[in-house]
Amino acid sequence: MRAVLDGLTARRVHLLPALVLAVACGIAPAAPTNIRVQSETLPWANMSAYRTYRWWQLPLSERGGGYSEREALLDWRVRQAVDRELTARGYAEDTAGTPEFVVRYSVRVREESTSSFRDYLAYRADGGGKDMGDALMGYAEGTLGLEIVDVATRRIAWRATATAVVEKDPQGKLIDPAVKEMFERFPATRR
Description:
This protein is an alpha/beta fold. The protein has five helices and eight strands. The strands form two sheets. The protein has a six-stranded mixed β-sheet, covered by helices on one side. The protein has a two-stranded antiparallel ribbon with strand order 5-6. The chain is globular, with a radius of gyration of 21 Å.
C-alpha cells in the first residue's frame, strides 16, 4: 500500500509543474459547455462610423432596490465582459456626450416564446436575418442577448445571442467566454 501511495505522490509532483505551465500559458482545458452563439450585423449598419457607446440603462446597483444580489451580480458580470470586449476593439464609453451607439442586453432564464408574432415581424422589418429570427421565435433557457442600437437612427445595428449561459452556471462563470465568443466577429473601431 505504501508503494502505491508513493507512486501516486510522485506522479502528482511531476504533473503539478505541467499543470502550472499549462494554466500560465492559457492552455488549460476548458470546462465543456453547450453554449451556442449567433451574431449578425444588420445590413444598414455603418459599423465603421462607431467610436463611442453608452449602456441603455443604469446598472442595477444604481437603480435602487428590488433586485436580488444574484441579479445585481449577473448585471455586473455582463457589463464587465461587454465593456472589456468593446475596449479591446477600440471603443470608448461616453457617459457625458452623445455616443454613436448604445448597448442593451437581456437574459432569459426559462424557455419561452417571444411575447408576440409582432415582435418577430418587428425584428424582420428591422432587417433581422432568417437564422436569428428563427432563434428569437423561442428563447432557450439561460439565453443572453446583446444588441447594439445606433443612436442616430434608433435602429438595431448588431445583435447576438448565447444559449445555455445563465441557468446552467448560477455563478456566472460562462458569461465571459460567451460574451467573448459573441464579439468574435464584431469589428474593431478605426481611429
